[in-house]
Specification:
The chain is mainly alpha-helical. Helix 3 packs parallel to helix 8, helix 4 runs parallel beside helix 16 and helix 15 packs antiparallel against helix 20. The chain starts with a helix and ends in a 10-residue tail after the last helix.
Length: 463
């Protein structure tokens, strides 16, 4: 009976995959197919939850096979992170019109990303207070206990490191090892190495233009190849998102979701407020927030459904350069740096909300302005090196909680609602990197106002 049930579930799963493939053959818009995959996953996962339940052997057996599609898709996204960072950052250096703009671009992008992350931490703390979650206790079941044990093992990688030591760990001692993502800080290490290569290129360009031009052609070719690979992977998004959502809904503990409802509400409120702050910042730089939202909406919806800042990078850069009017160098720096530095959702709001919840349980006054400033500072510094694919938020939370001497169990207790919150967090991360690109382009006076103000100019989907 169990085998028959598993086979029946898989047959329906394959039929839905076939339906998504038919939509692609009929050239239905990419964003539409992604949302159909998301909706199909919610409905199919919900049906499995209602018919069999989260702990049923049929559900678990079917998920082992469904995970091939979901986890395979995530694996391909993770595969792209290092090549994307490497070619995008070096490509940005080769496109810089003058080396004098380099300092302005990098400083503008970094200041925007880090400053907004500190503000995001403050918003996270205030949101917890507004929902009276400071000192709240959550239900701890078998799944949460297992997750806590895993986290304790993961924390050993960062537990004994001070913040200065964490910063030192960003140095790429063995770039080949970091390109294989062998360390928790490999992402930022590759960013640093790529920046060194780009800076070396600028030096060679002045002394030996012929060699520099040859190198530029190599990077341009690599960039084209990597972007083509990205396109091939992104075509899998409707299928991967469908599988991931099916698993998330089918295996969710709805009682836990109810228990954590206030935490979800507090998180989404903080994310919404931070998004409005982004728009206010843009308004301060004379960018129409309404026009901006209309233009970036396709990218943000993809980020929301895919839960991957890295997977969204190509659409991110294309939107900045072809729709918003951001110069190529600023767009690449902002989009790429945003993968590993200053993620407002995953590295800002998330760890700050956890700190605000758990700190009162160990006798800390979370309303103390000094402690709030400490949280903001620690979160801003710890936001370096957060990977752009699932798991980065957990890593950021472990660093922040460890740096403040707080227990990490809270991270495991909210595991049930992680996928739900992570969608909005990722969208906020991507939006912040776009905002950084706009501000940088405005700073170096390379921003194309006519492109930004052209309301008919939107992202052309060719995936």
């Amino acid at each position: 009976m169990t085998i028959f049930g598993i086979i029946s579930v898989l047959i329906v799963f394959v039929l839905i995959l076939f339906g998504l493939w038919k939509l692609q053959q009929k050239h239905v818009k990419f964003s539409t197919r992604v949302f159909i995959g998301l909706g199909a996953g919610i409905l199919f996962g919900g049906a499995l939850q209602l018919i069999f339940g989260a702990e049923n052997t049929i559900t678990n057996g079917a998920m082992e096979w469904i995970n091939i599609v979901g986890n395979g898709y995530v694996g391909f996204l993770q595969m792209l992170i290092m090549p994307l960072i490497f070619v995008s950052i070096i490509g940005a250096f080769t496109k810089i019109q003058g080396s004098k703009d380099l300092g302005k671009i990098s400083s503008s992008v970094l200041v925007t990303l880090i400053a907004t992350t500190a503000v995001a931490a403050l918003i996270g703390v205030l949101s917890v207070m507004a929902f009276n979650l400071d000192g709240a206790e959550f239900v701890q079941g078998d799944q949460e206990n297992a997750r806590i044990e895993q986290l304790r093992e993961s924390q050993t990688a960062v537990d004994d490191l001070t913040i200065p030591e964490q910063i030192t760990s960003f140095v790429p001692r063995n770039v080949f090892a970091d390109l294989s993502n062998s360390r928790s800080t490999s992402t930022i290490a590759v960013v640093v190495f790529s920046a060194f290569v780009g800076t070396a290129y600028l030096g060679i360009k002045r002394k030996d233009p012929e060699q520099a031009e040859f190198f530029k052609k190599i990077i341009d070719s690599l960039y084209a190849i990597v972007m083509r690979i990205v396109t091939l992977v992104l075509r899998l998004s409707p299928y991967g998102i469908f599988a991931l959502m099916t698993k998330a809904i089918a295996t969710s503990n709805f009682q836990a979701l109810i228990n954590l409802g206030l935490f979800v509400a507090a998180s989404y409120t903080a994310i919404a407020v931070m998004f409005l702050i982004h728009l206010a910042i843009l308004a301060g730089f004379k960018v129409n927030p309404i026009t901006y939202v209309k233009k970036v909406w396709p990218v943000l919806t993809f980020a929301f459904t895919s839960r991957s800042s890295a997977g969204t990078l190509p659409l991110n850069i294309e939107t900045q350069t072809k729709v918003l009017g951001v110069d190529y160098a600023s767009a690449n720096f902002a989009g790429t740096f945003g993968l590993s530095i200053g993620q407002n959702g995953c590295a800002g709001i998330y760890p700050a909300t956890l700190v605000a919840i758990i700190a009162p349980t160990v006798g800390i006054d979370i309303t103390d302005p000094t402690y709030i400033l400490t949280i903001m500072a620690v979160v801003a510094i710890s936001s370096f090196g957060v990977a752009g694919v699932g798991g980065g938020a957990t890593f950021a939370a472990l660093i922040v909680l460890g740096s403040l001497g707080l227990p990490i169990s809270i991270v495991g207790l909210v595991i049930s609602v992680e996928p739900i919150i992570d969608m909005a967090r990722t969208m906020l991360n991507v939006n912040d990197s776009i905002v950084a690109g706009v501000i940088s382009s405005k700073t170096i006076k390379q921003f194309d106002e006519s492109m930004m103000n052209d309301k008919n100019l939107v992202l052309q989907e060719e995936i």
